[in-house]
C-alpha cells in the first residue's frame, strides 16, 4: 500500500497489513482421454478421475470377457472393456485421466437401415408373451376364466415358436407347436412344454427347479448372432415375471388348473420386440404432494389415471443407460412438517439405495438430509442434489448445458415442476407419494365354441384359438411394480416407524431380493405410448388402527388405492379436508417410502458381445448409416475443445476403424496439445470382432505387412499421432484371468510409468522405461500376439510403427518411439512431441497472466522472468539442451503494440534420445600400444 493512501490528520501510528504469502494456484495436471465401454457410469460425457479407485467407483471394474450365464439379467460381460484396462494401466502410476463411456447414440439424421438406428431388434419377427390364466370345468372340458398375467417374454428371429400339450377339451396331447392356442399346464409351477426352433423344453416358474424357465431356455442374446456363432439360436428369453403371476392370485402348486398361451406382443402401432432407439436415462415417476381436497375427490381422472395432487419433482439418472434402474432405488425419508408457524416449508431426506438391500438393513450409496422445496433455502432440493444436464447438439458439435445448480449426486439430478422451482406452489406441500410407470390397458378377450376371435388391441394382435367345446374369457395384463400393501408384507420390520411404504423389492415376508423387479423397470420398446399411470402410491391411502395415543398397530396397517377416497385412510380419519397440518399421526409413524428408477437404455445392439467391434465399425460406415460409428464420432467431438477438456494424450483402445482414428488424430492436431495413440488395422482381431464364425485363429493373427500397407495407404504425416504393434496378453489380477488388449493400452501405461519415474520428455521405450515384462505398462504383460523378428521390427519402424518386441533375456519391451510424422525432424519422436505439448501448455499459462496488462517493457520482463526459470528447470532435467527467450522491441514492434499484441520468440533445442549405438571392436596385435 502506497504511503499516499494513508490518511494523516493528527499525530499517531497508522498500520496496514499486506499479505504477500499467498501460494500461487497450482495448475491442474493433465492426462489422457480414453474412450471406451464400461459397466456403468456417465455416458458419452468426458469425466475426469484422479485414481483407479475413483474410476471403479464411478465406471465399474474391468471386464475380462467370456462370462456367460444370464446375460439378459446380469449384463453383458462377454467382451473385454479395453478402455477400462487402459485407464487402469495409466492410473497405476500417474493421474488424472478423463474417460468417455460409450453408449448408443444415433444421428439425428439417421436413416431407417438396421445399422443406422441405435438399439436392437432381433429379426423380422417380434416378441412373444407367455400368459397364464385359471381354468374351470371337468377333466374333459375346461374353460378359461379370469386374469391372464404376462409370465415371460421370448424374443424370436422367426416364427418357429409355440406350445405343445393338452388342449382345453379332450384327454390327448393334440396341441403341437402352436401359437395363440390355449394349452393346459401340466405340472407344478405352471409347467408347460415350449417348442423353440424345433426343440422342446418343459419349463416352469419355480426358481428352485431345474426346469425353471431361466434355467431351461437361452438367456444370452449374443447366441442369436449367426455371424459369430456357428449354430445360432433363433430366440432368447428376456423378461420373466413369476411374482406378477403370483400377485394376480395364481397358485404355482396347482398342477392342472391353469392354461398357457403364447401370443405375439404386437399391435398396429407397437412392437414389443422393437428396441431400435437411442440411449435414454432412467427416471422416477413424479414425486407428488399430499392431497389437500376433501376425501371423496381423491380419485383418478380419465384415461390418464392422474390424481388431484401436485407434481413436485422427479429424480433422473445423470446420464443415459440402464445401470441406474437395474441397481438403484430411491427412498424419501424423514418427512417432517414445518417446525413452527414461522417456518413455512417442511423437510425431507432423499436416499439413494442399492436395489437389492432390504428395509431392515438399508444400504445407502448417498443421502441428502434436511431438504426443502423452498427455492430460497440453502437446502433447496435442486441446490443440494443438482439439476444440470447436457444435450448433444449436432449443429454446434458440442454438449449444451441446461439447469442452474451443479450436480452433487453421483447418480441423479433433480427435475422440478416449474411452479415449485419458481416458488409458486403452496409452501406446505411435502413429498407424499409417486406415480408408477405408465402402462397399457388390460386386454379382455372372450371366445366361444366357434373356435377363434380377434384379439387386436393395445398390445396383442392375433387370432386366439379355443377348443370346439370350450369357452374363454381372459383379461390379459402387463406386469406392474409390487408395492407394500400391508405391515405384514414386511413382518421382519420391528416397528411401524421402520417401514418403507411404496416399492417392495423383497419376496413376501422374507428378505430375499425379488429379481423380477429389474425386468419390470426396464426401458419400454420403441413407440411405446401409454398415457395411463399404472398406479399412484400416496401416504394419503395408508390406513391403520391406533393402539393407544399415537401408537399404531402395524398388523392393521395397509395401503390400497381408494382408502382416502372411501374415508378409510389415516389422513381421512384425522381431517376430512386432508390438511397436512393435521396429519401428524401419519408422519410421526409412516414418514418414508421407496420409489423405483424406471427405464434407462444403453442404446446398444445386445446381440453383439462388443457393440463397437471392428466388424460393426467396418470401413464405409458413417455417422448417418452406422449408430456405433456415430457414437464414437460424438465422443471424439466432445473432447475437441481444449477449453472444455484438458488432455495430453488420447486413445480409443481396440478401435482400428481408419476414419475414426483419423478423426481422433485430426482433433489432436487441431488442438495442438495432445498425442493420439492409434490402434491399427491389420493387427490382432479379438474373438468378438471376427468377420464370421468361420474366421480361424490363424486369420485373426497380427500381420506385419498388412498393417504396414494399411498405414501407408492412409498417407499420414503428423507428429500428433503414434502407433504400436502388436496386441499383448496381460494378467487381470482383479478377475484372476488373462486378456488380450490392444497395444494402445500398453503404450498409455508406459507413458504413465515413464513420466512418473523420470520425466514425460524421456523416451517411453527401451529396457529402462519400456520394459513391459518389468511392469512398465502398469499391467503385467505376459506375451505378444506375434513374436517379432529383427526384420519385422525394421519393417515396422521404417513405417513409423513402434514395435513391441520380445527378447529371450530381457522380456517384452516397447522398442521404438516414433510419431506418425514422415518428414524427418525432431518432432518425429514421441519424447520431443510430448515435450513440446508440455512446454506449449505451461508457457501459455504464463502468458495468460499478463493478458490485459500494460503492453510495456515491465510486463514483458515479468513474462520472461516466469518463462526463463521454467525452461532452465526443464533443461536441468534433460528436456532441453539449450533455449532462448526473446521478448523486446525487436519482436514486439511499435505497430504490434498499437494493435495490442505481444510477440515473443522461444527458441528451443530439444534433447534427443539415443536410438542407435555404433561400436567398433578393434583387435590389435600383442605388441600394440593402447597409448597410440
Account of the protein in words:
By secondary structure, the protein is of the alpha+beta class. It folds into four domains: 32-112 and 610-723 and 732-753, Rossmann fold (3-Layer(aba) Sandwich); 120-264 and 441-477, no CATH class; 280-439 and 481-601, no CATH class; 854-932, no CATH class. The chain has 20 helices and 44 strands. A hairpin with a 3-residue loop joins strand 41 (802-807) and strand 42 (811-814). It is globular.
What's the arrangement of secondary structure elements?
Elements (H helix, E strand, L loop, with lengths): L31 E5 L10 E3 L2 H8 L11 H4 L7 H10 L5 E5 L18 E2 L5 E11 L4 E15 L4 E5 L9 E4 L4 E2 L7 E5 L2 E5 L9 H4 L18 E6 L1 H6 L10 E7 L9 E2 L4 E4 L3 E2 L22 E7 L5 H5 E9 L10 E8 L9 E8 L9 H5 L3 E5 L4 E5 L9 E5 L1 H4 L11 E3 L7 E5 L4 E3 L8 E3 L6 E6 L23 E2 L14 H4 L15 E3 L3 E7 L2 E9 L10 H5 L9 H6 L3 E4 L1 E4 L25 H11 L11 E3 L6 H14 L3 E4 L25 H11 L6 E5 L2 E5 L4 E5 L1 H15 L8 H4 L11 E4 L5 H9 L3 E6 L3 E4 L15 H19 L8 H20 L3 E7 L7 H5 L6 E6 L22
Parallel strand pairs: 1-3, 1-35, 6-28, 29-33, 35-36, 36-37, 37-41
Antiparallel strand pairs: 2-3, 4-14, 5-6, 5-13, 6-12, 7-8, 7-10, 9-13, 10-11, 15-34, 16-17, 16-24, 17-23, 18-19, 18-33, 19-20, 21-22, 24-30, 25-28, 26-27, 31-32, 38-39, 38-40, 41-42, 43-44
Helix pairs in contact: 3-15, 12-13, 18-19
Structural class: alpha+beta
Average pLDDT for all residues = 90
Helix content: 10-25%
List segments where confidence is low: pLDDT < 50 over at least 5 consecutive residues: 575-582
Q: Report the β-strand fraction as a percent range.
A: 15-25%
Shape, per Cα inertia axes? globular
Largest sheet at a glance? Answer: 8 strands, mixed
Tally the helices.
Answer: 20
Strand order of the largest sheet: 2-3-1-35-36-37-41-42
Q: How many discrete structural domains? A: 4
The number of E-state strands comes to 44
User: How far from one another are the termini?
Assistant: 73 Å
Cα-based radius of gyration, to the nearest Å: 34 Å
